[in-house]
Every structure is written in structure tokens, then in C-alpha cells.
Amino acid sequence: AAFLVLCVFFLTFTTAVPPSSCPNSQTFQDTPAASELWQQIRDGNYDYVKQQLEQDPCTVHIRSGDGRGPLWWAQEFKQNQIFHLLLQNGAQTDVTDFKGLRPQDMESNMNSDTTGGINLQGAIPESSASDAADIDLELRQAREQQRLDDERARREAQERIRAMQEEPE
User: Fold this and answer.
1) DSSP letter string over the chain?
2) Contact 90, 146 (CB under 8 A)
3) 25/38 Cα distance (integer angstroms)
4) By percentage, how much of the chain surpasses pLDDT 70?
5) CA nearest 56: which of 28, 17, 29, 87?
6) Which long-range contacts does 122-130 make (Cβ < 8 Å, 24+ apart)?
7) What is the C-alpha to C-alpha distance for residues 143 and 98, in angstroms, rounded to an integer?
């Protein structure tokens, strides 16, 4: 009974799915799903991304052939709302692509124009210093939440092991 209560508690207060629960989170390959998600993030389709996350929470951990995923793309295309949505759904900020870049490193590497004449640097007004501070704060909060979630999951696993060891055979 205690195990069931712990499971219900954990599921009630945890919205993010850890990458270890997602079978393809460490598979870096270009797939139709990853390509579609990239396009929708590029186009700023918040509702599509939200719907995908609701249908499959593991969507937040998709990685394409270059090792990048939704958080990189949201940062690359300055889609702040989608970036925040991904963080709220457990996107990790401490992972790197094949070049060793983290999602938050993308801004400093966006000097090339790959959008057919649209300068991504100007896609959001330069008054985005407060946006950058907000994103930095949110990244720190997401890291702390991830640490707390990992710690809670570890404690719960230890409690389950103890409970199983104490059960009479």
C-alpha cells in the first residue's frame, strides 16, 4: 500500500519524463518525427509542440542526427514560448550535441544566415536582455528542479527496495 501511495504521489507531482524512461532519447538520428518537430519549432507553432508533448512526453527528448533536439531548435529560432514550454516539460539543459554545444550555447553560434535571407539575430527585438535574463533564470530553475526530481526518484527507489527487503517471503 505504501508503494502505491508513493507512486501516486510521484505521478501527481512530476510532469517531466526523465530521458531514461524514453527508449529513443539517446538515439541520434534524423527521423520524420524529428524533422516535423524541427519545422514546427522553426515556424513557432506552439500549439503543435504542446500537443506533441501531451501525446508523448518523450517528445521533449528527441534528438536528430546532429545530436540536437527541441530545446536547441527553440533557442536557435528564438522561440521563447516554446523554449519555456520545453523546460517545463523536462527538457535537459546540460546535454550537448555532436559539436559539444548545449542548447543555451546556440545564440552565440547563430552568425550564419541559413533562412534564405531572414536574419535570425533580428527575429526578436534587441530589448531581449530581460528575455535572456528570464531564460537564464529558468535554466537555473530547471536544473535545480531536475536535481530535486532525480534526488526524489533515488529516495523513492531506495524506499521501494527497503520495503521489498522487509516483506516476508
Assistant:
1) -HHHHHHHHHHHH--PPPGGGSTTTT-B---HHHHHHHHHHHTT-HHHHHHHHHH-GGGGG-B-TTS--HHHHHHHTT-HHHHHHHHHTT--SS---TTS--GGGGGGG--S--SSS--GGGSS-GGGHHHHHHHHHHHHHHHHHHHHHHHHHHHHHHHHHHHHHHS--
2) yes
3) 16
4) 69
5) 17
6) 123/77, 123/78, 124/78, 124/80, 128/78
7) 21
* Per-residue model confidence (pLDDT) at position 131: 59
Provide the pLDDT for residue 127.
Answer: 40
Give residue 104's pLDDT band: very low, low, confident or very high (50, 70, 90): confident
Close Cβ partners of 17 (under 8 Å, ≥ 6 residues apart): 57, 58, 60, 61, 89, 90
pLDDT at residue 155 tops 70: yes
| Full-model pTM | 0.57
Cα–Cα distances (Å) from 112 to 40, 58, 101, 115, in that order, read: 21, 31, 16, 9
